[in-house]
Amino acid sequence: MNTAPAHYPIGKPGIPWGEVERAEWLSQQTRQRSYESDVLSVIERLRPRFDVEEYGHLDYGANHYPLMAIRSRDWRDDLPVVLITGGVHGYETSGVHGALQFVDQHAADYAGRVNLLVAPCVSPWAYERIHRWNPNAVDPNRSFRDDGLADEASALMRLVAPVRDHALMHIDLHETTDTDETEFRPALAARDGKPFEPGEIPDGFYLVDDSESPEPEFQQALIEAVEQVTHIAPADGNGEIFGSPVAARGVIQYPLKQLGLCASITSAPYRTTTEVYPDSARVTPEQCNAAQAAAVCAAIDYVLASRWGRSIGRRE
């Protein structure tokens, strides 16, 4: 794995970026793939089987992006709501394509059992540029709060608002990549005028639970399902994964609401963030997508089998 440069090439050490530095950073971002071809075309092919809606629109200069969501066609008010999100960080490819793969291959298995709401690519500008931020150098996954600065996050919050207090489960699909350490964390430190502190990228899949409301059995059910597809990240020598103490095998915890993370946007009792590791020599892109889909299936299966899921499912 490459190591980060001693100093990020934009800005001056210890000084947060201003407009000049942000403009310089933006000028270096290039479109590398197509949201329309990779994502919108797939959603269109799903339209005969699911309800598809545009829940927002992003206008970034000459770039225009419809934000699309997929819903169960047989939506019923007496069924629990399951929220699936991907591509909050656009460069985390399997989050997007794993969500779409789940809808295509598995969603029909849950017809009449849950209401599915899927936002497969929350950050299309970043998807095309294989980046973590939006064009304003803002991380959408720290912006899921009322005063958040990312339009991507605000649009998703508006979509989810009507079901916020009725959701049973939310799974947010992410990746941890080698470029987190070589590009994105160094850029973050430079943007904020802070020193970069190197970390260790975990080799394998892991989950992020909510430290304020943990559900350890739920998390372990996902770990057991995903390890049939890809390997689980071990703790490092300090008993940590990516700088956080391991709460259980393959699981760390963050205060989701405090950090403004996507997984905090509902009151769902079951919440998790997946982290696939696509840079391992032991996995393929197909395995990464399959791991995300397996995590979604395991999550829904668990909550439907739980006492909570059964009671909500019977509610009139």
From TrEMBL:
Protein name from the UniProt record: Peptidase M14 domain-containing protein
Q: Which domain of life is it from?
A: Bacteria
What keywords are assigned to this protein? Hydrolase, Metal-binding, Zinc
Hydrolase among keywords: yes
Residues of the Peptidase M14 domain? 31-316
User: Which Pfam families does the entry mention?
Assistant: AstE_AspA_cat (PF24827)
GO molecular function term, any single one: hydrolase activity, acting on ester bonds
* Cofactor(s) it depends on: Zn(2+)
- An individual GO BP term: proteolysis
The text of the family note is: Belongs to the peptidase M14 family.
